[in-house]
Design goal:
The complex is a heterotrimer. By secondary structure, chain A is an all-alpha fold. Chain A has a domain of 198 residues. Chain A contains 14 helices and 2 strands, in the order αααααααββααααααα. In chain A, strands 1-2 form a two-stranded antiparallel sheet. In chain A, α3 packs parallel to α8. Chain C has a 6-stranded mixed beta sheet with strand order 6-9-10-3-11-12, with helices on both faces. In chain C, strands 18-19-20-15-21-22 form a 6-stranded mixed beta sheet, with helices on both faces. Chain C is globular. The two termini of chain C are 24 Å apart. Classes of the chains: A mainly alpha, B alpha/beta, C alpha/beta. Chains in contact: A-B, A-C. At the A-B interface, α3, α11, α13 and α14 of A face β7, α7, α8 and α9 of B.
Chain lengths: 332, 325, 519
Amino acid sequence: MTSSDSAKAATPFNLMGFLARYGTILSLVILIIVFSIGRPEVFPTLRNMFNVLNQVSILGIIAIGLTVCMVVGLFDLSIGAMATFGGYFAARFLAEIGSDSVLVVAGVMILVLVLAMLIGMLNGALIARLGISPIVETLAMSFIVTGLILGVSGSRTVNPSEITMTFQWIGQGRVMGIPNAVLILAATAFVLWLFLEHTQSGRNMYALGGNKEAARLSGISFTKYALMGMAIAAACAALGGMVAGANLGSGRPQGVGETYLLNAFVAVFIGASTLKPGKFHVLGTCIGVLLIGVINNGLSTLGVPTFWQYIVQGTILILALISASANSVRRA
Amino acid sequence: MKTTNLIGRISLVALMGGSILASAAQAQDTIQVGIVSVNYNSPSVQVQTDAAIAAAEALGWEVELFDGQGDQVATNNAAIAFIDRGFDAIINTASANPQMTAVIAYAKEAGIPFVSTFSGLVPGITADIGSNNTADGVIAATELVGRIGGVGHVIKMNWTVLPALAERDAGFHAVMSQFPGITITEIELKVPGQVDDAYNQMTNLMLANDDIVAVWAGWDEPGTAAARAIEQAGMSDKIFVVSMDGTQEALSLIRGEGPYELTVAYDVERMGVTAVEVTAAALKGNMPGTQLLTLRPCLITEDTAPPEGQPIDFENCELFSGEMQ
Amino acid sequence: MTGTAMSDSETGISLAGPVLRVRGMRKEFPGTLALDDVALTVRRGEIHALLGENGAGKSTLIKCICGAYAPTAGEVLVDGRPVSFSTPRGAVEAGIAVVHQHYNLVPSLSVAENLWLGEALPRRLGLVDWAAVHARARQVLDRVGLDIPTDADVSTLRPDQLAMISIAKAVSGDARIIILDEPTNALLPHEVDRLFEQMRGLATGGHSFLYVSHRLAEVFEIANRVTVLRDGRNAGEFGRDGLDRRAVVDAIVGKRAAQVGRKSRTHASAQTMMQVRNLSGPVSQDVSFTLHTGEIVGVAGLPGSGAEETLNLLFGRLRRRAGTVTVADRPVDLRDPAAAIAAGIALVPADRLTESMFHAETIRANISMPSLSKYLRDPLLKLINRGAEVAGISEVATRMRVRMPGIETHVDDLSGGNQQKVVLGRWLSTGARIFLLNAPTAAVDVGAKAEIYDLIQELAASGAGIVFASTELEEYLVVCDRVLVFFQGRVVGELAGDSLTEGNIMTLAAGGDLSDDQQ
């Protein structure tokens, strides 16, 4: 109360500026209130909160990785294919090895993450060194990766019976009552938040995304951070795919990542109109992801038909973009 | 001007004549059949397509496959190109016939058989080999009702955009209309993303409703995802799943302890083989008696599921209320 | 100068009446008076040059004539009738066409398509009638005597051909008054000759040109008459007969050159800081000079003369073609900006908005960007010590006298002058000893300008070496110890002490000879 009073005293209240910063959080709060009134015995329970977090965890992991590459001013359309890549190859390798030891599972997951990073770095190198459009390059890479998975798998799904319990535990188990997928999301969010906001590399990435020429004149190498950003985006997508594979207990060679691709972009763009208008940041992306999760969970607990979920999600995105552009107009 | 026009016409006629002769010469040698599939990458489509290719090659035919990779327009163009090249027959594996009417009319004009599997009945086709989806929906729903004694809260999840799934849906509703004691929550799944959506929706529904007793899934893919959600929520004792298709994943879940109760399995391999047999007969002038050939499905429960790695024995599987043959 | 051109122009002056007259033109912008009672007369068949320093009001005047700006007062008369254009389209209809520096052509389209740009293409049966398009384009080109195929892509043409196509396009729209805004900037000398020849042909045919240029030599070659603006006022009008280089230069720079606060005290010592030998880039050739500790050396020249390029070469922004640079007696390989920064060199680029500011970031982030390494907690994870960063940056911001609510203020919310102080301050923490300043006071208000001059002198006093470039000649006198003047890529003269005057810089930069003018 007191803080808002002093803020009002300092500057006249600016509605557009307020909405640009807090509009998405406000809509999140409103949605939570509406759903809680709608199903008070279901929606606002701790169990359902964990449920929402669990459902958005995979999307969140992928979207946070995408945030890093968008901070550098790049784009990654191959995250969908990379998620499928991560889920399929982790399941396939483990099925081939057949060992259920924790060490083997961890080793295989790290191996898949390293492979994903190498693909991401190849993306970064092609974009930065040859000056190819990131949109077209990553789209092309997603075709190659999709083809690779289909070729290796022969379109055959790795079935639950072939997948070890340790791997399935990663997607299905809980530690201290918290679903593992949520813990992985929280860890990813924390590490990349620290990386972007509090390390030199992260600050250099923001500099490149803000003004590439000014960053170059400050001695910051675009190639280096393009490689880093694309590698992180690819690794997060593969990690998200692995969690999806572990959760569903199958290694699907198609249809895993496509679902997350567009929603990840939606979450990142909603994030860029939250708290720090015009900037991509991890906290904003998390709020974007949460918004998507709450809309889907809330509407389905209310028993609202699927088509409404699409319409509500699209409307919220447009409102977020309007408030972001209103803010940039104000600045200009 | 006139002379060039004339020369153009003559050369065009000559070219056409030449190509007709060429294809005629080829036709005398071997029978050429073009197989088109809008989504060859889908596992069950791949099984029926590969079975058809093997059966055709066993007859000494020359086979060319076109995989539309989800693009129906490209699939239609490929089929028309096959006909233009003088192929003797077109086999369509699981690409919706209602979207291929132009190809079907073109094949009829060219006087060649157009045989399809699991693609729906459309006037002009030689035959469609598949299943009576409405009846299958009835079978799965009837088995479900029997197990819950005609009372309780049932979840139906489906994607009614696809004609075959809409037919199963009609079968479901036909049964349910007779049981006022059953409450139904209908979920239209998000496609693509159906697996994750089925999993999430199922989790949400279980949180929101503690009276759910059964799930009728339009096909095995979301069925397995729903089963997994039920298992993870520790509700396997209270809720069970029924579905249709008979995928490997569904079979392995049915074998286990989990909530997956049954599936109506299709003999997709035999569909491919039958398509070739019907085509061969049609080429000899023996048209099939009916344009919709429905193959006998098999009800798979924990008792009737084949052991791991074994195929389903469609010849001898147990009879049940929906026996069609 | 050909004899025919001379006689044409003479008959033009004596016989033809004015086609374009500007009277009492006044244009106010918030806080500044850009034009004050300006008059201009262009006669039929005349090539009329408009001269003046940057900021003298040339482009404002052109924009007022062609309707891009609404004048505060004054009138424009075409053929003696007052006209008023609310849009550039209206000016085109009255027969006034503007050809901009960059010619407004679409490189990926053909010559014919460019000539038709913005007009409805002729159609036959609903389709574009390409034969008619090319036929009309051919006519237009023939009218100005241009022998270029109409289906050639514009991207394949020479710069002088581009200029002529723009002129042809203007003429095809029945423009009788063609305003050329620095048309020769991108042209080589022989290309300029070709362009002038064709302009003379058009002038003979009755077209009039208003020609804006910095290049005095060209103006003396082509213009029949000259109008000079200074500080938004008329500063002189010269006919062909009275055209004297010295008089024109005086009119451009004015008498105030002697009165501005010239730099009186130098901080330069005898100690060499940077030695540049035979440095060559795409334009600059064989540039050699020595920068001493505490010294401020100016590099001056027209756009494209190599002065600005030399700064970019010294910062590794452009690859040098030849030459060596030594800093503190050690040779440095300036392969990229990072290498230059490591050698203790800093650059303040000319365009603050696109080249130096990190928008949507705070003052703190803008200043600390190149020096973050100083504020790390550890060398491995490179976590930033926020406390140390805030303390260090606060000190810099105070030293640079940035006026701000706090260092967490967004840099976009600062005035131009304060933004420039932030950009300068960025380099205080990197340990830079050599500062390359390119137009550091551009788009900065008068008060902030003086502060930036002071800051530059403070830097020099603290022992830094500074290489300075500006678009405003008088700044060289205020800031520099000596000035190297560039012409066509080479250093053509060095001015210091009494010889360092605006007039001398202008003369040398325009390719003139000092000994001629000072007699």
